[in-house]
Amino acid sequence: MAESDQISTDDSYASEAGRQLAFYAVFAILLLGIVIYGLSFVVKLTGGGASGKAVDFENNSITISVAYDPPQLDSMRATDASSFLVLAHVLEGLISNDEDNNLAPGVAERWEIREDGAIFWLRDDAMWSDGKSVTAHDFEFAWKRVVDPKTASEYAFLLFPVRNAEAITEGQMPVSSLGVTAVSDRELRVEFERPTPYFEKLVAFVTYFPAREDFVNSTDGRYASSADTMLYNGPYTVDEWVLGASMRWSKNPYYWNDNKGFLDEINVAYITTDVNAKLNLFKDGQITDTALSASMLPEAMERRWQIDRLMDGTVFFMEFNHRDGRLTNNRNFRRALQLAQDPAELVYKVLKEAAYVPADSLFPSWVRGAEDFLHNEYPPHRSETDIALAREHLELARDELGLTEFPPIVILTGDSSMGLLTAEYYQELYKRNLGLEIRIDAQIFKQRLAKMTSGDFDIVMAGWGPDYDDALTFGDLFSSWNLNNRGRYSSSEMDAQVRIAQAELDPVKRAAAFGEIQRLVHDDVVIIPMYERGVAFVVDPQLVGFRRRSVGPEVDYNYVQLTPLRKP
Amino acid sequence: MPNGHAYDFSPLRRTEISQSQSRPSLSYWQDAWIRLKANTRALISLYLLIGLLIFTLFGPLLWNIDPAAQDLDQISRPPGEDRRALIVPEYSPWTGSASDLEVGSGQGLRLIGEATTQSIRLGWDPTDTVTGYRVYRNIYPIGQERAYGIPRAEFFDSRIVNFEDRLDLKEGIYYFTVVPMKGKEQLLDLTETLAVEVKRVTTVREANQKGLIGLTEELGVGDFIDLAFHPLGTDYLGRDMLARLMAGARVSLFIGIGAPLFFVTFGILFGATAGFLGGKTDQVMMRFADFIVALPFLLFMILFKIAFGIGPGESGIGPMLVALVVLMWPATARLVRGQILQIREQGYISASQLLGGKTLYLILRHMLPNTLGVVLVTLTFAIPSAIFTEAFLSFIGMGVAPPTPSWGSMSNEGIKTMLTTPHELIFPAVLISVTVLAFNLLGDGLRDALDARMRNQE
Amino acid sequence: MAIAAFITKRLIQGVFTVWFIATATFFAMHNVPGDPLLNERAMTEAIRANVEAKYGLDKPLGTQYLIYLSNLTRGDFGISFTQENRQVNDIIREHFPVSAILGVLAVLFAAVGGILWGALTALYRNRIPDYLIMFFVILGISVPSFVIAALGQLVIVNMNSALGITLFPVAGWGTLGHMLVPSMVLGLGTMAYLTRLMRSSMLEIVSSDYVRTAKAKGLPPARIFAKHQLRNAILPVITVLGPAIAAITTGGFVVELVFAIPGLGRYFVQAVQQLDYTVIMGTTVFYGAFLVFMVIFVDVLYGLIDPRVRMS
Lengths: 568, 458, 312
Known about the structure:
The complex is a heterotrimer of chains A (about 575), B (about 450) and C (about 300).
Chain A: H1 9-46, E1 55-56, E2 61-66, H2 81-90, E3 95-97, E4 103-105, E5 108-113, E6 117-122, H3 136-147, H4 165-169, E7 180-184, E8 187-191, H5 199-203, H6 213-218, E9 236-242, E10 246-251, E11 265-271, H7 275-283, E12 289-292, H8 297-302, E13 307-320, H9 331-339, H10 343-351, E14 357-358, H11 374-377, H12 387-401, E15 409-413, H13 417-434, E16 438-442, H14 445-454, E17 459-464, H15 472-475, H16 492-503, H17 507-523, E18 527-539, E19 543-544, E20 547-548, E21 555-556, E22 561-562
Chain B: H1 28-38, H2 40-57, H3 59-62, E1 84-88, H4 98-102, E2 110-112, E3 120-123, E4 132-138, E5 150-155, E6 162-165, E7 172-182, E8 185-186, E9 192-198, E10 201-203, H5 204-209, E11 224-226, H6 241-277, H7 279-294, H8 297-308, H9 317-344, H10 347-354, H11 359-395, H12 407-416, H13 423-450
Parallel strand pairs in B: 1-10
Antiparallel strand pairs in B: 1-11, 2-3, 3-6, 4-5, 4-7, 7-8, 7-9
Chain C: H1 2-30, H2 45-55, H3 61-73, H4 88-123, H5 128-142, H6 145-163, H7 176-206, H8 209-216, H9 221-250, H10 253-258, H11 264-273, H12 277-305
């Protein structure tokens, strides 16, 4: 107390009591310190992983952060990006992707794709993390387990090109009838249900990864639910997995490829979806890389970071409900909505994300056609905004539908801030340009899916990311039989083109079919493409070989090496 | 004097005031009001709250701007920024035709046309031996670190030598860099950088749409105009912050005051009934209240909110209100019951009963008014917690549905751009804080003022 | 013995309350619109039926409820819907300790801070320390927790970069440094509340008769303060501590999200968004039970500390 102007009885009481209080305070703080010290031991048991340094040259290790804990690491049942990310580092399929995203030999040394099937010849030196060899039987077992109804794998549809796969998942045929046979330990034969020219790209996907029968059976139904109930054949192994908290991957000593897996250890120390927290971790030198959202860019520039960007593969669009009786079943109505908007304005003024690109097509710009990018071979119809023409189409629609007044249109969207932002923008846009009343229906993930499935919407804000690196992963989306065609668009013309794209062996004719699909999607206004999502990111400059990918794991550390910075 | 006579007794002269009353007789409420008035903090809070209500209810009449209207020329603008803009022709797409690129050809990286907030068009000279280009943009000079800034485009074709940037352009200087690529390798020696100064512009159509051009005014391309005025700036969609704060106040205060009013009323009825009836009924009713108290509040709040569901176009205020009421009434009920139990035993109740007071009269005239003080205090403390609950739900993405604004959802959006445009966080957060604070201080003041024990102190 | 009977009675009531909670949650959840089994990629009917059978969702709701209850009595919360190979029991066992440590620490901070500040402000009433502390207390009460959490993190980052070392980790879990700032942020609101409570109860006591008597008897101030004022003022603080522990432990979502802490709160929010039935049920019932028994525990404790309170 600084003030000591007057001494009253109260003041002397206060000062004496204050001294007593200070004594108690010291005591309490000491006690608190002891408790905290004690707790710090307990805390180590519940978390762990955070090493305090993004790049550790001594141990040749790095520390990273991921968005979610993988729900599980069972490659035969995994359906989500966070599992795919881990699996791409710890398992390897017959074929894998190299540094430049080209197909490269994985467990298979060479392969042959024919019209009616495929043959894979496996290498001798591919091993599991317990030192046993990876054999053709491991693939046969894994693929059969995927289609087994008992497994209830949601990604089983990816195996449908294999003979009888679809019938097996429906329980109409025995699992043993799947068209895959391990002729020997080193040779795997596959029979096709129909010609599948893009099969080699499918095989690179997680669902086609191997698993060893004796090991899976020994885990008592808990395969890949923890670090020790799993076998690895990729560049890294999962050493330690504290559920929901952290993971540690270590170099797999049995891995065959010398050009992958240079690090001794990768610590997945932070699991968070909070981009600001990730940025703060990066700034503090705790993690090797982070994505940068629009609002972070000024700071990133101020800090003189080397910013990079990549398309993450996903295309976002407004999908119409084409079911009978819906307003959006009317083509003129859809055309009016198409003409009244401009994806460039959405991306450049509203979303402001540096790595997003306005979309004109169902196919993203990175998808390849026969020889070049599909967009170069078949340029998409550039979007043209013409509000006067849009109003004309709206009048036509009004006449065709026999309406005097348009009822409110429901836009279904998720609860992500991007989804809401987009919906709010379009709500105002269509009110201004067309005088339409839009109602936003924002729902949590599962409720949105339920409404999408049952068709309880006029327009849904949807996105589609690639499962495999082929145009068909986008191209077959609006075939009448595709269950992911949530708006139930159905046209014989579209179906015919999709069938060509599925089975045509000539790449040029196949690309032409994709070009035709692209035109149909625009002309018939099946959807209104909005943007291709991309990500701006920054990586610790001491990392070499860091990759982000449009298809497959979004972040790839398989080729990462550490090099000290040269002082300029 | 053992024997008294009549003359001994003279009538006492009436003095002016036989017994001076130390203070005027005051009712409970008058007394409380006087005490409240003496409490400066509580009084200021009260005026603040009245001010807030006026802001919410009458503000929109004075500042009659649609809180949903988007001004895409002015996105995330802090208050008090320069609004002057040049009128330019309507934007038309640019293909980078040969004739455009001819101008200044051979001078390397150059600006084509004018650099405006509408678009920046760049051209450069093709280099043989390369396979493509990358274009970067920075708001700071490149410097020795070769910090080129944001990658804006990649071209995998050496013949493409033009680029148009339209991404989130603001007035000021931009530094563009074109890096020729050979495969994956950046050819740093051939890199060119250009500083571009950008002018703020708008178009006649935009200006007309926003009503910026008066009927008699004749403005055309080349003239300057003031863009729409936003006293507190705009948010991430170019919406007027002031209008949104007023609209958001309606939601936040409706939840904050409405929910407590409902559950306090319900709590009073529930508690009074239980307390008055007593016995088995009381037991059962209070066990039920205990059960509600035992529900993990936030978890159930979220569950209820989801369970009630929100239809298209609905803001979801209703379900949130119901959930709050369902979960928050027991505290009041317990309090009122306790009070009623106490009061029931008081002398004046028996007196009133003896005088023939009916049950209903007893409850309305004697019991409830006597619990009112406690209830009022509970209410003022319940309001901040309801406002916080709304804000918290917005934070985890389960608040009111857009485009309906609320202070909670506005702060949550603002937090994302905390460093670049702090005004989007500061305004709603300050309003939440001020409201919560004012109710807390008022509650404190009320408690002091209404507490009978404090009556004779000071 | 009276005390044993009291505890038994309260425990039995507690068990019933937990059962009610389980029932209420079960039916509330099954009425939530939406389909927990749907995923980004659509499933064929056949695959869907297989998945449904796996989780027992093909049975009528009543049967599901009975199965759930019988599992519950055995302490089995089932398997997570979204984390297919993971037992809800495991999830709780892994993540609750994290939330609990965070919560305990936050409550400790809040209690120690609240009592000390409260006593201090009462002693120096209407003087600079009082105003200063009360200003921060008011700030603590009136700023939303997510704003405080975000600001807290920002302060750490800037402090670290100014010092050039990592004084406190920015986020994550696993060491002493990781727990300090988040638990302070988490405990801030409660601390502010306790400070106010402590201050007013200190002031009430200082003007009470027994303190006056003690002063009149000429007892040394330090003794009066320690024996009478502080000790009696702490009692009301302890009463609110029970609910506060429960509220803090169950309400750590915000801090867990912002600081990337693998606590149970984060799991719950995720589970709700994913409609993960078993995890929602497990978390709610577990927390409900925790809350109920915490309150009972505090009541009993209070009865032991304060002889005026009768066990009835």
